[in-house]
């Protein structure tokens, strides 16, 4: 008999695509997708249940459907997607706690798959050339999505100790990129000019949306256990990515990088947090040996090929409209003016 799989976060693009592809897998008998709003994308034969994982009612959904496999894709990466940082943290952390509590109370749950992120390793000048799954962060993430993901993984480890009978696999995925997925990183590379930090040229690693979803599928129906890094082969530098995207770069002094991030958040063009700005300074590269040997995934796209497919599919070139450009310029002038004024006061 096939698996009964519950997928969280199906109202977003990746969650909907994963639910749809999983519903056609011969190893899966039934897929239940849950979220607080109905999905706009096609979820195939997935049964949608409107439910909030922050509410204990999720335990009833798991019990009544006799779910044996839970795939948690409901962690939100940007405050804008959640309606603000407080709501984002509540969904990510409190929602995960409630979901794990529901899984713990359900004797039928036998497998748990967590969509995590390589951001848990942080980004700093002290980082190793490659992070293995056993390497801890040199600087622990202190804010945003990365901090939430660190907390989520901590709760998952606690759940694993309480329910050793449940098979747990945590996928630490590189930044998703591709022709259709939208993230803070894809929004950044769609800007007409890319703000970079003077003196830095980060090494970047991506996973194509197709490969990332295939990794989640293998984790769901396969036998892999533990923490597994997932990324495309190779790296590209930020300057190489900018050239591939066909956009010029604008160097910003590091003390002003946070102000520039605020400017773009105000315009709604890109939602950059502190840890994402650090990523654009220092980058991050993960070792993917376990991805091949344990998960059994051979990515179809290298990091460079994934980025090139993104550039081709999303037509990443050409200017913004005059109206949006004026918004960007106005916001930049405001925050940079304040920042330069502060610098002048300090120097004088």
Low-confidence stretches: 340-348
| Tally of DSSP helical segments | 13
Number of strands: 13
Secondary structural class: alpha/beta
What is the helix/strand order? EHEEHEHHEHEEHEEEHEEHEHHHHH
Amino-to-carboxy terminus distance? 75 Å
Strand line-up in the sheet with most strands: 3-2-1-4-5-6-11
Fraction of residues in H or I helices? 40-55%
How is the main sheet built? 7 strands, parallel
Instruction: Evaluate the radius of gyration.
Output: 20 Å
Question: What does this 3D model show about the protein?
Answer:
- It is a single chain.
- The protein is of the alpha/beta class and 348 residues long.
- It has 13 helices and 13 strands.
- It has helices at residues 13-23, 58-65, 79-82, 85-105, 144-162, 184-189, 209-221, 238-245, 257-267, 274-282, 289-295, 303-313, 322-347; strands spanning 3-8, 28-35, 47-50, 69-72, 111-117, 167-173, 175-177, 194-197, 203-204, 206-208, 226-230, 236-237, 249-252.
- Strands 3-2-1-4-5-6-11 form a 7-stranded parallel β-sheet, with helices on both faces.
- Strand 5, helix 5 (144-162) and strand 6 form a beta-alpha-beta unit.
- The longest helix has 26 residues, at 322-347.
- The chain is globular, with a radius of gyration of 20 Å.
- The protein starts with a strand and ends with a helix.
Give short descriptive properties of this protein:
disordered C terminus, 348 residues, 7-stranded parallel sheet, two-stranded parallel sheet, alpha/beta
């Amino acid at each position: 008999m096939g698996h009964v799989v519950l997928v969280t976060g199906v109202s977003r693009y990746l969650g909907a695509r994963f639910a749809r592809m999983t519903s056609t897998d011969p190893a899966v008998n039934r897929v239940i997708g849950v979220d607080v709003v109905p999905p706009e994308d096609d979820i195939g034969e997935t049964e949608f249940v409107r439910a909030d994982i922050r509410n204990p009612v999720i335990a009833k959904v798991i019990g009544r459907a006799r779910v044996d496999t839970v795939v948690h894709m409901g962690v939100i990466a940007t405050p804008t997607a959640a309606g603000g940082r407080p709501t984002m943290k509540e969904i990510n952390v409190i929602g995960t706690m409630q979901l794990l509590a529901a899984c713990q109370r359900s004797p039928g749950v036998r497998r748990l798959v967590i969509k995590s992120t390589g951001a848990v390793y942080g980004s700093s000048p002290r980082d190793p050339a490659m992070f293995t799954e056993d390497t801890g962060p040199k600087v622990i993430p202190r804010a945003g999505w990365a901090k939430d993901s660190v907390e989520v993984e901590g709760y998952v480890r606690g759940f694993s100790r309480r329910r050793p009978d449940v098979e747990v696999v945590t996928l630490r995925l590189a930044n998703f990129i591709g022709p259709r997925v939208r993230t803070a990183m894809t929004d950044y590379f769609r800007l007409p000019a890319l703000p970079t930090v003077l003196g830095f040229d980060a090494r970047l690693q991506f996973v194509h949306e197709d490969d990332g979803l295939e990794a989640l599928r293998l984790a769901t129906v396969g036998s892999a256990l533990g923490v597994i890094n997932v990324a495309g082969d190779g790296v590209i530098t930020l300057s190489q990515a900018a050239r591939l995207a066909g956009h010029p770069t604008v160097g910003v002094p590091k003390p002003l990088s946070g102000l520039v991030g605020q400017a773009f958040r105000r315009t709604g063009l890109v939602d950059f947090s502190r840890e994402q700005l650090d990523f654009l300074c220092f980058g991050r590269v993960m070792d993917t040996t376990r991805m091949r040997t344990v998960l059994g995934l051979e990515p179809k796209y290298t990091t460079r090929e994934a980025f090139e497919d993104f550039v081709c599919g999303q037509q990443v070139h050409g200017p913004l409209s005059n109206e949006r450009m004026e918004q960007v310029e106005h916001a930049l002038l405001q925050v940079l003016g304040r920042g330069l004024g502060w610098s002048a006061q300090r120097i004088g």
